[in-house]
Amino acid sequence: MPEFNLQCPVPLPLETVQMAHGGGGRVMRNLLESLLLPAFANPALEARHDAALLELGGARLAYTTDSFVVTPRSFPGGDIGELAIYGTVNDLACGGALPRFLSCALILEEGLPLAELATLVASMQRAATRCGVTIVTGDTKVVDRGRGDGLYINTTGLGLVPEGRVLGPRQVRPGDAILVSGDLGRHGVAVLSVREGLAFETPILSDCAPIHHLAEALWTAGISVHCLRDPTRGGLGAVLNEIGLDGGLSLEVREQDIPVAPAVAAACELLGLDPLQVACEGRLVAFVPGTQAEAALAALHQLPEGRGAAIIGRVLDAGTVPVTLRTRLGTERILDLPSGEQLPRIC
Amino acid sequence: MRFLDEYREAEAVQPLVAAIQQRVTRPWTLMEVCGGQTHSIIRFGIDHLLPAKLRLIHGPGCPVCVTPVAFIDKALAIAAQPGVVFCSFGDMLRVPGSAEDLLRVKSRGGDVRIVYSALDAVQLAARLPDREVVFFAVGFETTAPANALAVREARRLGLANFSLLVSHVRVPPALELLLASGRAQVDAFLAAGHVCAIMGTEEYLPLTARHHVPIVVTGFEPVDLLRGILDCVTQLEEGRAEVSNAYERVVAPRGNAVAQTLLAEVFQVVDRCWRGLGLIPRSGFALREEFADLDAELRFDVAEIGGVESPDCRSGEVLQGLLWPTDCPAFGTTCTPEHPLGATMVSTEGACAAHYRYRRPGEA
């Protein structure tokens, strides 16, 4: 009888959906690659950009969708209504588009106070006005009490991509500079602070805001933008890893140049979270030719929401790992794609 | 940031690195006791700043890691019961038991909640009188006093629906085991600063006397760690072996008397089984008999549940400094944060997790 050597222990398979499947990290990426991308395979989807770029009747369109399930519905610095507008507007901006039209689908739980719904809808319209987009279609469904979380919102967005703009993960080149438009991690910490009843001495407000003006500032300044991303779930770490993996490149960022507000850094330190993996909802990560880095930075600095912008790193030829972090002490380590959700630590 | 940045700046770090370089003439092996220190060392790349003759090995000080599988299985059994709200610190949720982890129990409908303090669980119990709220009390001397406070508070409120699954552990008996067994070749220890902030430094004196080994109380920031390392190598090079304190800004020699009183009021010292290390005499805290009614092991009849460790997980050797995480055949192949074989790969203080998360280019 041949010798039976079990080389590989059988891992516990994930037989049901877990929170990590929506966490923006490696588990979610596996779900996309093993189930969703093969099921719907087509070139627009496979570009794996924040918005699909489509040509229709001679027009270049960016098309995207996003669902919003945040708890609590109001948090320091924003609410689910404006988040639902900015989130989709920001994905369009990352597609190089001028945002134009949005849809709004509401899934309401029986028992949600109508006054709260009215407040959130007004908040959506204010945000839409601020972004110059029109909500042109929608849908309303109600589910039984206990079968929803008060309110879920889905928005789909359509924008026009001006001639000459070609961007996406595969446009990123060795030699490109990496910029962020402001300090990182505010949204995630703000939501966590309310959700978990944590009181910090300095209240941390969400960074929830539109970023299309920042994107347009880059285009207007004549920057040959190669890729734009907004670091939502999984934070900057997830964005950099996705670009590295999808573009077959290595990225290097410098810890001391990555802006993180002291209050956010302190909260993350306390909770055992990595601010580079915490969500933002109003920040832009831009990949531009290295020779245009300073010009791009100057363009971002001219807008109030870009005043905290910084050049944080550069793109290298394909190396052994997608993202390397150069620490304050001059040592190097990998900045990994987070696994699933970050879990606060014990001590 | 005050109290943080100044202990991370390159200008503060470089003179200490230079002093260590200058001091070391022979090969030495230091063990950092606590997983928090391990993560700091790997995250900041401190090991790469040190002379090649100086080796840092990782110790057993990760409370999540040393919690035996049997206890995880008990937690899973309790969390799966209807009517139970099971509260835990976040990093316990992904730790595999014999067959699954708390996240899976949650995805099947178990009410598993992350809390930041045991007092949050007490408040939850007060708010949900018709539910059984159970708190998973793991951790070293660091977390035990806060959990003791929760016990006192639950008693004060007269809560009948609150209980704790207690698996607290103590550092000194584990160090005694490592030294007495002679398996890990450790020349000096970097003791965990937060443990000593509670317990003080005196309980390490007998260890130093018996085994002639320097024990230096050390913090968690780069400057704190390097000061501790410098103190260790200075003692070793001079042939001294003393307990000393390189974390004076936090640790007082006698520790925190209030916390110690609280510990003594609520817990008693017991023998405790550690994952990978086995039964260590007097190495744990359990609830005193007068609090037995708050003991979840008794309330839910799970005392008899035993666990099965994965035969492929060598975390026991990792926790004793006998196996370097990346030398484990399973590391990064069959054992990853998504599919951990053992707790050392998923805990925020686990040595394998530190090496996986902060691995260097070329180690991928």
Walk me through this protein's architecture.
- The complex is a heterodimer of chains A (347) and B (364).
- Chain A is α+β, with helices and mostly antiparallel strands and 347 residues long.
- In chain A, the strands form three sheets. In chain A, strands 9-11-8-12-10-13-14 form a seven-stranded mixed β-sheet. In chain A, strands 1-2-7-5-6 form a five-stranded mixed β-sheet, covered by helices on one side. A two-stranded antiparallel sheet of chain A has the order 3-4.
- The N terminus of chain A is likely disordered.
- Chain B folds into two domains: 303 residues, Rossmann fold; 43 residues, no CATH class.
- Chain B has a six-stranded mixed β-sheet, with helices on both faces. In chain B, strands 2-1-7-8-9 form a five-stranded parallel β-sheet.
- The radius of gyration of chain B is 20 Å and the shape is globular.
- With 364 residues, chain B is α/β, with parallel strands linked by helices.
- At the A-B interface, helix 1, helix 8 and strand 14 of A face helix 2 and helix 5 of B.
Give the CATH H-level superfamily of the largest domain in chain B. Answer: HypD, alpha/beta domain 2
Shape of chain A: globular
The secondary structure category of chain A is alpha+beta
CATH class category name of the largest domain in chain A: Alpha Beta
The CATH class designation of the largest domain in chain B is Alpha Beta
Write down the Rg of chain B: 20 Å
Helix content of chain B: 25-40%
- Enumerate how many helices of chain B there are, as a single number: 15
Query: What's the rounded overall pLDDT mean of chain B?
Result: 92
Give the name of the CATH architecture of the largest domain in chain A: Alpha-Beta Complex
Biggest interface reads: A-B, 41 and 64 residues
Question: Can you tell me the overall shape of chain B?
Answer: globular
Number of domains of chain B: 2
**Main sheet of chain A?**
7 strands, mixed
Weakly predicted, low-confidence segments of chain B: none
Number of helices of chain A: 9
Across the major sheet of chain B, the strand order is 4-3-5-6-11-10
Order of helices and strands of chain B: HEHEHHEHEHEHEHEHHEHEHEEHHH
Q: Mind telling me the C-alpha Rg of chain A?
A: 21 Å
